[in-house]
Amino acid sequence: MSSKYEYIKKYKIHLLIAIVTFILGWSLGNSSDDVLALKNESSLVVSEQKTLLEKIQDKKRLDVVIVNSPTIYYKGSQQELGFEYELISAFAKDIGVDLNLTVVNTVAQALQKSRDGVGDITVAGLSVTQEREKEFKFGPRYFGVTQELVCHNSMYKNKTIPKELKDLVGLKITVGKGTSFEQTLLELKKELSGFDFNTSLEFSTEDLLEEVDKQNIDCTVADSNIFMINQRYHPKLVKTLTLSDRESLAWILREGDDSLKNRLFRWLNRYTSSGKMEETEAFYYAYLGVFDYYDTTVFTKRMKKLLPKYKKYFKEAAKKYDLPWELLAAQSYQESHWNPKAKSYTGVRGMMMLTQSTAKELGVKNRLNVRESILGGAKYLKQLEKRLSKEIKGKTRLEFALAAYNVGMGHIHDAQTLAKKLNKNPYSFKDIKAVLPLLTQKKYYKSLKYGYARGNEPVHYVNSIHGYLDIIMKNEAK
Fold first, then answer.
1. Is 335 an annotated catalytic residue?
2. DSSP per-residue string spanning 9-53
3. Per residue in 197-224, pLDDT tens?
């Protein structure tokens, strides 16, 4: 009897254990599913909370709307160029992504793409105005300009050139639709009785400058940097009135959090403090203030007539010595005006104006042979560049080398020594340009190793080459 009772007791205990185990197992199983669901939901939330910058880095691509113009972006004969293109390329590299461009032709098109939400950033040489800030989100300011009224120089002869605002009445003036210039003229129209102007959706600012050059319109308005670059291509253009205070340019960012904007600020600070901004600005803008109407006009004619005959030699030399062929062509024009038989009073001769001793060292047997002279000059320029200290970086190296080609490496070293004494940067060509003219003054050159030098000449030499280079590159990009 007792054994039967014990058996029933044990059976009940096992049954209870089985029920408890089932309940616990069911509960734990469902809890684990709930935890997994919560985990998945949490991951989804984290994913949705990624910043704008993280999303760009995840897709490994920065989508940019960019305007095709000499100051912003254009295709050179060998590479893509433009002041703003170089900046946005440097930023894309900084955040570790590729650059994907949507190229448009006018500011109006760029603004519409921004409204449509195309791309991550719009790069269009846009000045930050109150009206635009109401509609768009801007990144950091990176460059300053003024708005200039640009007309044809024939208006001086016709005595119709505007000297003050009231002279604008009756002139045929056209600006791009949607530009800050339109807003400026609209404000002016409120104040100036009888004044009116036209707008164009079809023409960019550069197109309108060309229309002024062709005298299809009297005047247009352009930012100061755009005018200076285009004056080289259209030397009959003149700026007459400044219509604005100094304005800042900035890029438009797509709506979202501030992660992209904050990263742009940090990058721009580093880019500026490292000297890269100064170098990039110098390459595109530092030489634009040097303008000679007659020289530019003559150069443009000779470029069309003579350069095609010699281009193959410049390209051959450029490939051999890893130099831009356009730079060699510009330097050769500065040296000889592309005259193979050129000769100076000092005895230098040929397309690249080599001395007899230098030609011999370079293996140039006949200085009057076009190919030999160009190859020799390119070889010499490359040798000079290689002799420069490693502290001289990027495009600045070629500026130093060009100056040395003109005045001699010894005087360049003297200028660097003097720069240090004057608390200037001996590795910045901007500072060296300020120091070189001092080599004509005895109080400075008497303590220097190589003594007196005509220090203004290499400054003019490099300035002129940059001017010719700019015109050649623009012509080749057509």
1. yes
2. HHHHHHHHHHHHHHHHHHHHHHHHHHHHHHHHHHHHHHHHT--HH
3. 999 988 889 889 989 999 999 999 999 9
